[in-house]
Specification:
Structural class: alpha/beta
Order of helices and strands: EHEHEHEHEHEEEEHEHHEE
CATH class of the largest domain: Alpha Beta
Radius of gyration: 19 Å
Number of strands: 12
Distance between the termini: 24 Å
CATH superfamily of the largest domain: Response regulator
Strand order of the largest sheet: 2-1-3-4-5
Strand content: 15-25%
CATH topology of the largest domain: Rossmann fold
Largest sheet: 5 strands, parallel
Number of domains: 2
């Protein structure tokens, strides 16, 4: 799921982005209205998370502009504005949800998963995987993966037939290095009968053969 995060507080932005990425969302950053207009012109997103008081056009005007251009992307507002009129303005602009600051990032993730993500199972050979619950079965039998293997498998199957950069996979290791990564990939191959291709100097790819 690709998310555009608009938040001009750089420290808050970094913490929210890191939390969302820890939950395996793809997050791109915007800090002002110009960023949003430039990014949405070139890229489609599955969800917008917009602060309201940002440089340039405020979050309400940004969404109104996007909606007028037939952009139907679901939008969550995050803001310290607590008045009923502000909340109403947000929904009138086309928002789907509204979270008052300060908030727990876990609440944001719960809302995203419950409202905007479908539990579509991914298949690979004799495996079925639920990317939301992380439930994995092999020939109908539940398979448990340790944290590191689970994160690596999730990254590979979510981008099946696409190269996952080595640096991304390193993030899942306690002591990132090529040998440790190869050991964990070898464990995954053996445990789940995966066809993982090494693209030398770039990364790894789960091939759907």
């Amino acid at each position: 799921m690709k998310i555009l995060l608009l938040e001009d507080d750089k420290n808050l932005h970094a913490s929210i982005k890191a939390y969302l990425e820890m939950e395996d969302f793809l997050v791109e950053s915007a800090y002002n209205s110009d960023d949003v207009y430039n990014l949405t012109y070139k890229t489609s997103y599955d969800l917008y998370i917009f602060d309201v008081n940002v440089p340039g056009d405020d979050g309400f005007k940004i969404l109104q502009s996007l909606k007028s251009a037939d952009d139907t992307t679901p939008t969550i507002y995050t803001t310290a504005l607590v008045g009923t009129s502000s909340i109403a303005e947000g929904f009138n602009a086309g928002a789907d949800d509204y979270i008052k600051k300060p908030y727990d990032p876990e609440e944001l993730v719960i809302r995203i998963k419950s409202r905007y993500m479908k539990e579509e199972l991914l298949s690979y050979k004799n495996l079925l995987y639920n990317p939301i619950t992380k439930a994995l079965t092999q020939d109908g039998v539940t398979i448990g993966l340790a944290d590191v293997l689970g994160h690596i498998f999730h990254a590979l199957i979510m981008q099946k037939n696409t190269i996952v950069p080595t640096e991304v996979l390193f993030d899942f290791l306690e002591h990132p290095n090529p040998n440790a990564l190869r050991v964990n990939l070898s464990k995954l191959k053996s445990k789940l009968n995966l066809d993982i291709k090494n693209v030398r100097g770039v990364g790894y790819m789960l091939e759907d053969i």
